[in-house]
Each structure stands twice: as structure tokens, then as C-alpha cells.
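Hi,

I'm pasting everything inline rather than attaching a file, because the server keeps stripping attachments. The sequence lines come first, and each chain or strand is labelled.
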Amino acid sequence: MKYVVVNGSPRGKKSNSDRIISWMTQNSQEVQKVYVADIKKHDEAMKVILDADRYLMVFPLYTDAMPGMTKAFMEKMQQINLEEKSIVFVVHSGFSEPIHSRTVERYCAYFTKANKMKYLGCVVMGGSEAMQVAPNGYFGKKKDYFEALGQNIMKGELLDQALLQKIAGAERFSKFKILILRFLPTDMYWNSRLKKNGAYEKRLDKPYS
Amino acid sequence: MNITIINGIQDTKHNKYQKTLEETVTALNKDHQVDMFTIDDMNVAYCCGCFSCWVKTPGICIYKDDGVDIVRSIAKTDYLLIVSPVVAGFISSSTKKAMDRFLPTLLPYIKIYDGESHHVPRYDKRSNLGLVLLDEGDLDDEAVKINFDIIDRLAKNFHAPKVFKACALLENIKEVITNEICSC
Ligand SMILES: Cc1cc2nc3c(=O)[nH]c(=O)nc-3n(C[C@H](O)[C@H](O)[C@H](O)COP(=O)(O)O)c2cc1C
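And the predicted assembly:
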């Protein structure tokens, strides 16, 4: 059994995806990683893909789907024979609610079926941009859940539905949460980054109007 | 009306649509101002996720390539139309590459719209959104439905008042696009 992890983030090694991957793979020695961000190496990566029989593909939500380079990678994958190989996806988004990622999750299942692969499941997690600043402790139990799902993959099992549910949380905000959110300083993260770059005054600029 | 067309044709199989699309644009240009971007003929980099367009040079992408013209056009458009072949069951990577580059037209700030998180738009203009999938008679319903649903989500994220979705054959693509545009 050969296991390959596809990091589907344009940010490559500096991505939140890589952090999730480190949680999911920490107990396994035989993990080979490929990065879709190495766009010039997609053809080379296909040799690694062809050689393996189990995949984990992790990507951030970009304009409601997978990033462009991840789609380019999947188009290359579609051209090789992936029959009987098994795959797990992780889709994570900047927005907190899993609802944003559910449509592309359906595509992940479709892609698996179209290639006659085995679908072991898809993890959906919101609020991943916080990883840029938050320590592992901030994610508390979620990190443990990802580790446990990593074990599922090692054993070739279907992902544990209860864990998927725990990671995803509520599909949408409750009315109560919406009320609370109104009073939270949610702009703070972006404003502090803008200020650090001396760009705060220009934050609302409309350069092409 | 200002119309922006993203043309995501990327394989020779769909080249035959190119001429018809150009004729459609010529016809539309009599009453409208149309910018058509054929992504594969342009120099457009994949978004690298640096967020410069939000936190360093607000509204301006780090890449000074042809993607800038797309953002300039979208900032003023009344109708954003995405024309794409279906590759591996999904809009093409060229189409998706262009979509990722829409990010500078939003602000980083998040607000609740219709009970969901979405970004606040940077520009005042609200443009309608359309999707036309190129149909070779080989599209399966499930793939079409997924692509249509993605465009519905994109419409929410980009605050489009109306959203149109259709499949078109070579024989009727001109009609499909013209009808879509006339209906707004
Ligand atoms: C071009 C672009 C588009 C994005 N679109 C979405 C989106 O539609 N919904 C969402 O929740 N997050 C969106 N995000 C946020 C990313 O999913 C989020 O920042 C993620 O944590 C990045 O993970 P990475 O470091 O692994 O690339 C987008 C980010 C970029 C750069």
C-alpha cells in the first residue's frame, strides 16, 4: 500500500493545508507529499500518483470551489487510470460555516466515482484562516479528531462520521450566533494586518472605479 | 450595458466554439460594451493566496499580468458571464483560474447576508452573474447540477442580484447567450 498526500493549496508549504496534513499524518512513516503549488511539476507528480493506491487531498475553498491550480492537477489525474484506488478529501474554508464547502464536496464524490475510485470520505472544516495566527492549542480537540481520521486513512477505513460531524460543527449559524457575531470585533484580524503593512487608510480603495 | 465574458475554453475539442463566440460578441457590441477574456490566450497567473489585494495594496493584485484587465472590467460590469467547457466534470481550470482572480473586487471584511458569512463588496456596482456550459451532448445531469449549484454559491459571495445558468450546444450558443443577456 502506497499512500500519497496531495497538498492542494496555492500557498504550498506555508499553507494551512500543510498544518492539517501534519495533524493527519504524524504517525505514519511512508507518507509522500506532492504540492499542486509546484505547477511546473504536475506531470512529474502524476508518476507518484500513478504509483500509489491511496490518496489524501487537502485544499482550501477558493471562490466556492477548489483553487484553479488544484483543478488543473485534478484534470491531469483524470487522464490516468485511478481505478480501485481510494481517496480522502479535506476541504477547509475561511468562512466558519461548513455549508460553503458542501457543493464542492459533492464534486469530490463525483470525481471519485467518475474515476472508478473508492471514496473514503470528505472532511469539511470552516474557519481555517485562523491557523495563520493560532497555536495548535487553539484548535483543541479538533486536532485530535484530525489525528484519528488520519488513522482511518492508514487502515483504509471509511472516515468516522461522528468525527466528521464534530469537526464540521453546525452547518449554518443559529439566530443566536448571528446576534452575537454582530457584537464581535470580527474586522480586527484584517485591520491589524492592514495596519502592519501601512495600508489601513487605503483599505476601502476602489482602484478601478 | 457593460458585459464581461470569461471564456474558459482550454482544449482543442472546444475550439470550434471560438468563432461562434466571437460572432456573438460582435453582435452584442452593437447595443452593449463587451469585454471578452479568452483566458488561454492571455497571460494570467494562478492566484497564490497571498491576500496582498486585501492587506497590502487594497484592490490591487500582486501580479501585474492580464488578470488586471479582468478585475478592471468586472469593477464596472453589469453582467458577468462565465463560458466554460466541462472538464473532468467541472468548469475548466482556466475558468477557475480567472475566478480566483476576482478576489480584489471584495473587501476582506465579513458580514452576515441571508444568515451566511460573505465578504463585503469593494465596488458599488452589483452585476448579474451567468454561466454557460459548453455541451457536446456528453454532459451528465449530476455534473451539470453541481456546476450550477457552485454558480449559485458564487452569486451569493459576489452579491449578484440575478443568476442565470444554461448549457449550450454549438448550434444554439449564440441564442442562449443573447437571450440570457436580454433577460436582464
Ligand atoms: C482567491 C481566494 C478565494 C477564496 N475563496 C473563499 C471562499 O469562497 N470561501 C471561503 O470560506 N474562503 C475562501 N478563501 C479563504 C481560504 O479558504 C482560507 O484562507 C484558507 O484557510 C487558506 O488555506 P491554505 O493556507 O491551505 O491555502 C479564499 C481565499 C483566496 C486566496
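The domain at 8-133+157-182 of chain B is CATH 3.40.50.360 (Rossmann fold).

If the labels don't parse on your end, tell me and I'll reformat.
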